Amino acid sequence: MSYEFILTEAQYQPHVALIRLNRPKELNALNLQLMQEIKHALLEFDQNEDVRCIIITGNERAFAAGADIKQMESRTAIDMLVIDQFETWDQIRKTKKPVIAAVSGFCLGGGCELAMTCDMIVASETAKFGQPEIKLAIMPGAGGTQRLTRAVGKALAMEMVLTGKFISADEAMEAGLINRVVPEELYLEEAVKLAKEIAQQSPVAVRLAKESVLKAFDTGLQEGLYFERKNFYMCFASEDQKEGMNAFVEKRNAVFKGR
Ligand code: DAK
User: Fold this and answer.
1) pTM
2) What is the pLDDT of residues 5-58, one digit of tens each?
3) Which comes out higher in pLDDT, residue 87 or 188?
4) So which residues are the catalytic ones?
5) Most-buried pick from 107, 132, 147, 155 (CB within 10 A)?
6) CA distance 210 to 56
7) Cα(93)–Cα(84) distance, rounded to whole angstroms?
8) 3-state secondary structure of 215
9) What are phi and psi of 106, to 5 degrees?
10) How many CB atoms lie under 10 A from the CB of residue 137?
11) CB distance 109 to ligand 1 below 6 Å
12) C-beta of residue 65 within 8 angstroms of C-beta of residue 108
């Protein structure tokens, strides 16, 4: 499939795929087609055995300044219901491989929600995070009230959601929203470094571990612990587990196959 609003590379680095949002004049505002394209690319990379980690990025000025306001302006509630864009967002959340958001500049509204749907966020020191929907007389609708609150706690989430204020990359780091802050010229490089580190691990163990960490967000502790245990047992069914432990014993680097 050829894309209009994103650029993709399956082997941007060995085992690391890249999705670049590419509507620079509109600060990568997320229109319906762009979201569909992200969904499609993620699905494609999830099914590609050579890909072990995926990076989503924008450009220096904007990761994404939110959903496309011009496209949404005249919509009715029933339009939104019929379009059912949540299906696309749900699909993005279901990506099995780790997804890293490499963020610079504006990361707002749906853009911030997209970054938070990813598994980790690497930010440039120029990044600005916010949920400014309230200023448009709407509210976050793709996880902003839930994921932001879980990440930064009630006090800051409430303030951001109710006033629309932006926070800097340093504030986001301190609040626990993101994994790293680096100078602007290094944010993509730093995300690649993190992706490569993950790509060196067993894809089977990475998948089971990602699934288990995400489970912590939608279950109680006891059920989560049982889920974790089952995935832990499952690791011992893989060739990678034998290879990993054998390599340790033989004092050599493990080579994982994802089997
Ligand atoms: N939508 C459409 N166009 C946008 C945009 C957006 N969100 N953000 C920026 N642009 C466009 C501007 O209109 C401008 O276009 P032209 O006028 O040149 O044609 C161009 O990008 C450059 O923007 P500015 O001239 O405004 O640049 P500044 O540096 O002065 O300001 C800014 C940058 C980011 C502070 C400002 O552009 C801004 O406040 N943008 C809007 C930010 C915002 O309110 N974001 C939240 C949008 S609501 C859903 C899931 C998610 C959502 C909804 C539904 N479902 C699953 C159903 C999410 C909703 C949202 O995100």
Assistant:
1) 0.97
2) 999 999 999 999 999 999 999 999 999 999 999 999 999 999 999 999 999 999
3) 188
4) 67, 110, 113, 133
5) 107
6) 17
7) 15
8) helix
9) -70, 130
10) 6
11) yes
12) yes
Nearest protein Cα to ligand 1, atom 28: 27
Rounded distance between C-alpha atoms, residue 247 and residue 242, angstroms: 8
Q: How far is the CA of 60 from the centre of ligand 1 (A)?
A: 16
Q: Is 177 in the pocket of ligand 1 (CB under 6 A)?
A: no
Q: How far apart are CA 237 and CA 56, in angstroms?
A: 31
Q: Dmax of the chain from CA atoms?
A: 65
User: Where does residue 203 rank: exposed (0-12), middle (13-18), buried (19+ CB within 10 A)?
Assistant: buried
Calpha distance 91→31 (Å, rounded): 16
Report whether 191 contacts 55 (CB < 8 A).
Answer: yes
Closest of 105, 19, 122 to residue 64, by C-alpha = 105
Tokens coding 168 = 């800097």
The residue to which tokens 């997804």 are assigned = 99
